[in-house]
From TrEMBL:
Function per UniProt: Catalyzes the aldol condensation of dihydroxyacetone phosphate (DHAP or glycerone-phosphate) with glyceraldehyde 3-phosphate (G3P) to form fructose 1,6-bisphosphate (FBP) in gluconeogenesis and the reverse reaction in glycolysis.
EC number: 4.1.2.13
Entry similarity comment: Belongs to the class II fructose-bisphosphate aldolase family.
Molecular function terms from GO: fructose-bisphosphate aldolase activity
Protein name: Fructose-1,6-bisphosphate aldolase
Cofactor: Zn(2+)
Annotated InterPro entries: Aldolase_TIM (IPR013785), Class_II_FBP_aldolase (IPR050246), FBA_II (IPR000771), Fruct_bisP_Calv (IPR006412)
PROSITE patterns: ALDOLASE_CLASS_II_1 (PS00602)
């Protein structure tokens, strides 16, 4: 059934596991997440970005997720809006029936310009007021996602700062986090520790200077009762890049967030781990491979099936790696 995000994250905290939150845009991605969760008995967070709602259309996104709840009535499921850029966008999602919303006030409403602390508190407070009134959950964000070496926010067309960020903007300050949580009363806090959206996160396998898991520990020590959220947490598996490139793709060398680093973060209060890119990579590799090997096929179901299966395998792996087995 659809349940509250707060309840799901509280359970994860009590039982020391993390929940991957998968971005979904279409039928096959929803099916992939649900069947993976079903196989391992995991709880599910399906999240839709503003881009997803635009791509599919709001009624489709809503009803795809409701269909998932209907088809898997035994799985606890949260319908979450990812990266709301304004209180109005969040209100729209709440009106649609989302039980959880992210107000990303780390950036201005353009989704590009880093905001001030006071602006962030103000918009997040507004969303907490409207959401808590109806029992919905709120995720906020403090700090900007970005590569600590280059200052780039990553993904050009998604949510991310334009231009260069400086080091301090890209690392959430634990003291500020404590003030922010107290002032806003939000349920979950997304933090910046050097990850960024998209496939091009790190130019080498990340070490502590560019992926600051130590910062997670410092934040958790300061606000132990706040559920932490990691964005930009795809692992960008090398084998998925290899499949894409073997079958005509041209992806450059790149590295994601290693699963073992996420597992370490889960020990220090990270309960929700956002993953979109790994599903994109898995599906693209599978489609490229299928079509290259079957140039005579033209039934869309035939190439969507391996894409859905590849996405499912990624989801299942993350459920197991983050400790979700049997928690749903
Ligand atoms: O926020 C980043 C997610 O990867 C969603 O991306 O805006 O292209 O749907 P999107
Ligand atoms: P990835 O691009 O690493 O999958 O991150 C997704 C995300 O943070 C969505 O909010
Ligand atoms: Zn994100």
């Amino acid at each position: 059934p659809l349940i509250s995000m707060r309840e799901m994250l509280d359970h994860a905290a009590e039982n020391s596991y993390g929940i991957p939150a998968f971005n979904v845009n279409n039928l096959e991605q929803v099916q992939a997440v649900m069947s993976a969760a079903d196989e391992v008995g995991a709880p599910v967070i399906l999240q839709a970005s503003a881009g997803a709602r635009k791509y599919a259309g709001e009624p489709f996104i809503k009803h795809l997720i409701l269909a998932a709840a209907e088809m898997y009535p035994h799985i606890p499921l949260v319908m979450h809006q990812d990266h709301g850029t304004t209180p109005e966008v969040c209100q729209g999602a709440l009106n649609l029936g989302f039980g959880s919303v992210m107000m990303d006030g780390s950036l201005m409403s353009d989704g590009k310009t880093p905001s001030s602390f006071d602006y962030n508190v103000d918009v997040t407070q507004k969303v907490v007021a409207m959401a808590h009134k109806i029992g919905a959950t709120v995720e906020g964000e403090l700090g900007c996602l970005g590569n600590l070496e280059t200052g780039d926010a990553g993904e050009e067309d998604g949510i991310g700062a334009a231009g260069k960020l400086d080091h301090s903007q890209m690392l959430t300050d634990p003291e500020e986090a404590a003030v922010f949580v107290k002032a806003t009363q939000l349920d979950a806090l997304a933090i910046a520790i050097g990850t960024s959206h998209g496939a091009y996160k790190f130019s080498r396998k990340p070490t502590g200077d560019i992926l600051a898991i130590s910062r997670v520990k410092e934040i958790h020590a300061r606000i132990p009762n706040t559920h932490l959220v990691m964005h930009g947490s795809s692992s960008v598996p090398q084998e998925l890049l290899a499949i894409i490139n073997e079958y005509g793709g041209k992806m450059k060398e790149t590295y994601g967030v290693p699963v073992e680093e996420i597992q370490e973060a889960i020990k220090y209060g990270v309960r929700k781990i956002n993953i979109d890119t790994d599903i994109r990579l898995a599906m693209t590799g599978a489609v490229r491979k299928f079509l290259a090997e079957n140039p005579d096929k033209f039934d869309a179901r035939e190439w969507l099936k391996p894409a859905r299966e590849a996405a499912k395998q990624v989801c299942k792996a993350r459920y197991l790696e983050f400790g979700c087995e049997g928690q749903g």
